[in-house]
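User: For documentation purposes, I need each entry recorded in a consistent format: the amino acid sequence on its own, followed directly by the corresponding structure tokens. There are two entries in this batch. Please keep commentary to a minimum and don't merge the entries.

Assistant: Recorded as requested. Entry 1:
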Amino acid sequence: MNEQPRERPGPARAPRPSLRRRDRPPGTLTAVPHADQTSAPPAEEIPTERPARTSQEGYPGPPRPERVHPVALADLARQAGAKLPEGGNGVAATGITHDSRAVRPGDIYIARPGARFHGADFAAQAASLGAVAVLTDPSGAERSAATGLPVLTVADPRAHMGTLAATLYGEPGRELFQIGITGTSGKTTTAYLIEGGLRRALAASDGLAQVTAASRTSGTPSASGTSAGSAADPAGPALTGLIGTVESRIGDDRLKSERTTPEATELQALFAVMRERGVRAVAMEVSSHALVQGRVDGCVFDVAVFNNLSPEHLDFHPDMEDYYRAKRQLFTRVRSRAGVVNIDDEYGQRVAGESEVPVTTFSAEGHPDADWRAADVEIGPLGSEFTALGPDGQRVRAAAPLPGPFNVANALAALTALASAGIDPHLAAEGIAAVPGVPGRLERIDAGQPYLAVVDYAHKPEAVESVLHAMRKVTDGRVHAVLGCGGDRDPHKRTAMGSALARLSDTAVLTSDNPRSEDPLAILATMLSGAAGVPAHERGTVLLEEDRAAAIDAAVARAEPGDTVLVLGKGHERGQDIAGVLRPFDDCEVLRAAIQRHPGPHQRTGLTHQATEGSAPVTNRTDNRSDDPSHPG
């Protein structure tokens, strides 16, 4: 029998206004008055991103390991099935990249075809920076040969990027315990929660006794007894790693992320750096784009996690079946050793049945057939608690450090993955509960206002609805929500997103997200059609404001004590792409500035929405968010 969530006991609350009461005036559809726009800050006042760090002094791009053993070009050619050209004997490589700007001396430059240019057009630049060879396809061979470098020619250069990079860096993934997370929603949060559990396990003397890659073969032993390409065991404590949409982390060292899953050459280099610095286990988001494009070639995940699947990225995938098949790749023998799957999702049930690797199932809805399921769920104002029931009679009291039923599912996914990795589930639960929050995921902005202000990355219909339902549960007053839809992305979700915002918010402010090459007003018109389709007695007041800063300002201006202001769509991002120009824009900072401009008579330090005892806070502000506005998959 499924367990039903119950509200955590607390002080009595006045009933909040309902959007479905027929005796209240219907919502309105209006543009924000010009007077509301004048108080929004000009773009130049918005804090700008710090300059991107370089991985090592003088070199752009992601980090590289400090010590790499040269690998003969002849061996790499043999691995790729390419003929070794004249002049290739005696050449050895120490790195590999597909970006001509990031070439370092000793690199193989991968010249692959692109949408507008061929990488071979930049082979001369790569040669000038110290490349020792070029890997390309037949259409780029002649231009690459003009550099005088040895050229390896293969049918599809991308197909060899991951495996060649893994070889060059000494198969670093074999010495890391890797947990990969895929799904439409919740990848980032689940990755952070898993990394928190891994940290707690590492802090325990025997917490990672079974979570170690040391027992696996780690490449060809070198004369020193370590793996080829690896460093000796580093001094200091063992560390955890994190790779995902918001950032990558090596222990506590943070690196900006350009996409959800790095390109294959960058990923293998990052693994090598992690190994070199003492990382033993890593939690990593794995997008459908990454699986289709071979970015995780050269990786075999010790545990693969499936969260859910709903319509998204249909500008990249022709249909949902193609999207599903891309995700399912993670549960093949060439990609993983074990699976953890959410069977509350119909696609998850398919994954569990079709997986080539052993699967442990979980259900936040209490499905009786699940190996791990949530029971005694208590929804709190800023977090939730539940009991995780395990396959061997385990009862583990756990906490989701973010609000909403969907974060119960994310926390249960993390706990199941960690338990499957051999970590004591009670220890795993401690680590999950200790995670302070996830940047741009229900991230609270506290500027002393007497209402809740939250930024979230929700940018698909199901996510928007889930977040609005979750915030409804913890809001005494009214919900004022801001949302836009990204340009050059799946246009079919825009109507549904406009509808959801109008139906579930008291004030729905439709605005721009990252319009990219599209007309922002055309995007807004589609969203508005969805909002207008909601029956008047179910619809909140709908405002239309193209300028995102003014839209946020308009929502804040309407907030009263006990309300919630919710800014959706961009989350951790620190830029807005308008007509191909990336302009500084940080929802968190813009929201904070708007709150400070509208202090109101009830301004004070702290929130009226206090967490009940034992609940964790909504994500606190952090400065480690990406400025990439691509909503990568």
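Entry 2:
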Amino acid sequence: MQNFDSINIEMLMHDRILLEDLDRRKRLIESISDKLNIPQAQLSNDKTMVDVLMQLQREHNPMMYEFNEDIWMFLASIMESEDDIQASRITGKNSFYNRTKAKLYIDTYWKNYNSAYPSFHGGGGDCANFVSQVLYAGGMPWVEDGNPNHYTWFTNWYCKPGASNKDGDKRISLSWKVAASFKKHWEKRAAKQVVISYKDAINNMLDLSNQVFIGDPVQFCYASGVPYHTLIVTGYAWDKAAGVSDIVLASHTIDSNRRSLYNTMLKYPKDYQLRFYVIKEGE
């Protein structure tokens, strides 16, 4: 289902996102330390950094706008939901979601990108952008509070006509295009989440296949839970060689609609995590 080129591309993307996260933290720590005279060692503690950033937000401090996207992407990467994500389930939620339309969009645009949307293929990656397009095509509506300056807020999710792939474009929310922000939005909005380690998923593929459906997003995450790739379920398959039920995924950046979940997980540390967003219960 996949070749060495796609595996190499994913490894590069995996490493790049990790390095970008480290660079983002370094920039924020150095800038805030310099402007607020707080020791860098103190800001290296995530809890302290979050407390400082939340206080800056309450004060409407100009620094929140100076480092807008860096701050919100940093927060998205470290702040877990207060909910019990393993048990979260809302029966009947998003019952209008049309999996058939989502599948049609996947089949049409997994390789031939939709020109109505910006492409991030040559930049930070187009994976979350593509999956957001699929969800929208399946009937999930935009969420916006009417304030363009809130495009970084996790509660908003949209991509308006004319949106570009430029940083700071307020016509597209971070949650639409950035994996960590996508996570913060959909962990609240999906009917159910399935969070499982690669090790447990590899050993329970049949059970996992029975819990997720075509048109449900999935994120590949580091052991910390920070996502590095966003994909979407497009089908199921039987892996004869391994004797397991497999889940077939589609994605951009690594353009594919025949991606084996099982074989992908075998190539990564077993404490890495999968995070499925079951948009609605059942087909």
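Summary note for entry 2:
The chain has two domains: 4-78, 84-283.
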